[in-house]
Amino acid sequence: MTSIARDARFFVDGVAKYLKTGGSGGVLLPRVTAALHKISSSASAGKTATVESVVRLTGMEKAQLGRFLSRLLTHTVSLECRTNKNLIGGIRVTVGDWVVDTSIATQIRAMQEALSL
Question: The pTM is what?
Fold first, then answer.
């Protein structure tokens, strides 16, 4: 697991814990904030977003996604689009070490792991 992946997992777990405690996680909040900054900085360094989807994206979809990612990362991002039938559905976006994976395949794997515990 990469450093960024560990930081991302810590961030998600930290936010969940903070919310469960009703915002009383005073010691945890600075560490969670630092993890988010590290994750964001890593993603901000990337200039190319690799976008995987089951179907080919239309020109309009590419333009909208490119504008959204550019606003989110605060710099222009070029898209490299690929089709990947193994995703089953959804999309996976990778910018540097930052990955957003909403694919059905990943959701199924997560359910399998949760059920096997």
Answer: 0.60
